[in-house]
Design goal:
single chain; about 270 residues; mainly beta; 2 domains; two-stranded antiparallel ribbon; binds 2-acetamido-2-deoxy-beta-D-glucopyranose
C-alpha cells in the first residue's frame, strides 16, 4: 500500500477510483448456485453493475454438504490489476451475521483460473470484514477468484458463522488498466521501453521482466560486461576483436573476431582448440 492510500485508511477514507473496472460484464462462474429462478442467484449478478442483484451459493458449513465455495471472473485476458472492491449482501438487522458468513475469505489473482499456482492477494481475518470491502491487490492476471471455507476440526475466530454460510456477492469491481503497456492511476503513462511484453507494476513502473540484454527494476541497465541475453544469464563465449565484450542482447562480437578465432560467436579457434 502506498503512503497516500495508507493515510486515507487511517482517517477512514477509502480509495478514489480512477482506474477502469475490468470485471464489468465479464464472465463469472461459481462453485454451486443456490436454486432459484432464472439468473436469480447467478454468478454474473456480481459483475452486472447493479448492486441490487446478488449471487448466492448453496450453504457451506460444518453440518452442510459442502465445506468450501468459490466464485471467479474471467477478465478475458491478462490485465494489470490495482484493487478489488466487493459489496457483500446485507439484510437489515443482520449485518453482523452477514460479516460472520463472509469472514475468512481469500482473494486470488490467476492467469489460468486455478487457485493452484495463482497469487494470494488478500486473506481475511481474524476481524470480521466490512460489507463494502476494498483491498489493494497489485498484479497481473486474467482471473480473480474469491474462495472461502468452513472446515471440520478448525476453530474459527469470534464472530465467524460456521454453518449455513451462504455466499452472496452483490458486486465485485476489479480496478486496473484496461490498456496494456501503461501504468499509473489514469492508466496513461507508458511502461519503460525495455520491459518484457511492455508489462510493468501498475503503481511504481517496475518491469515484471526485462527484454533480452537488459536488467534492473525498470530494465534500463545493460547486462554487465561479459554477460548477455534474457536475465543477463548467458556468458559471452567469444574472443572479440580488440578484447571487447559481446553484444549485451545477442552475444555476438560487434566488431568481429580477434585474430585466430571464428564462428558466429567467435568461439572457435581457427587452428582447432
Ligand atoms: C462502497 O465503498 C466505495 C468506496 O468508498 C464507494 O464508492 C461506494 O459507493 C460504496 N458502495 C456502496 C453500495 O455503498
Ligand atoms: C477502458 O476504460 C475506459 C475508461 O473506463 C473506457 O472508456 C474504455 O471503453 C475501456 N476500454 C475497453 C476496451 O474496455
Ligand atoms: C437492477 O436490478 C433490479 C432487479 O432486477 C431491477 O429492478 C433494476 O431495474 C435494475 N437497475 C438497473 C439500473 O438496471
Ligand atoms: C514495485 O512494487 C513491486 C511489487 O509490490 C516490488 O516488488 C518492487 O520492488 C517495487 N519497485 C520499486 C522500485 O519500488
Ligand atoms: C528469467 O527470470 C525469470 C524470473 O526470475 C524467470 O521466470 C525466467 O524463467 C528466466 N528466464 C530465463 C531464460 O532464464
Amino acid at each position: 500500500m502506498d503512503i497516500i492510500t495508507f493515510l486515507l485508511h487511517l482517517v477512514g477514507l477509502t480509495f478514489v477510483f480512477t482506474y477502469d473496472d475490468l470485471a464489468y460484464r465479464k464472465i463469472a462462474t461459481q462453485s454451486q448456485t443456490y436454486p432459484g429462478g432464472y439468473m436469480y442467484y447467478d454468478a454474473n449478478n456480481a459483475v452486472d453493475g447493479n448492486t441490487t442483484t446478488c449471487t448466492r451459493t448453496t450453504e457451506i458449513g460444518i453440518f452442510n454438504p459442502h465445506n468450501s465455495v468459490w466464485w471467479k471472473v474471467d477478465l478475458g485476458r491478462v490485465y494489470s490489476i490495482y484493487s478489488i472492491n466487493i459489496l457483500f449482501k446485507n439484510y437489515d438487522g443482520y449485518g453482523y451475521r452477514q460479516r460472520g458468513r463472509f469472514a475468512g475469505f481469500s482473494l486470488y489473482v490467476s492467469t489460468t483460473g486455478d487457485i493452484q499456482g495463482s497469487t494470494l492477494c488478500y486473506k481475511d481475518g481474524p476481524q470480521l470484514p466490512p460489507l463494502n470491502f476494498t483491498t489493494t491487490c497489485t498484479g497481473q492476471g486474467r482471473y480473480v477468484i474469491f474462495y472461502n471455507d468452513r472446515l471440520d476440526g478448525v476453530t474459527y475466530p469470534d464472530g465467524y458463522e460456521i454453518q449455513n454460510v451462504f455466499t452472496e456477492l452483490c458486486e465485485v469491481i476489479v480496478q486496473g488498466c484496461n490498456k496494456s503497456g501503461v501504468y499509473g492511476e489514469n492508466c496513461n503513462i507508458p511502461c519503460p521501453i525495455n520491459c518484457k511484453d511492455s508489462i510493468c507494476n501498475i503503481q511504481n513502473r517496475s518491469c515484471i521482466g526485462c527484454k533480452s540484454g537488459w536488467t534492473g527494476q525498470t530494465c534500463s541497465t545493460k547486462c554487465i560486461e561479459g554477460w548477455y541475453g534474457v536475465n543477463c544469464s548467458l556468458q559471452c563465449k567469444g574472443h572479440c576483436r580488440g578484447g571487447t565484450t559481446c553484444n549485451h542482447v545477442t552475444g555476438l562480437c560487434e566488431r568481429g573476431c580477434a585474430d585466430g578465432w571464428t564462428g558466429s560467436m567467435c568461439e572457435k579457434g581457427i587452428h582447432g582448440d
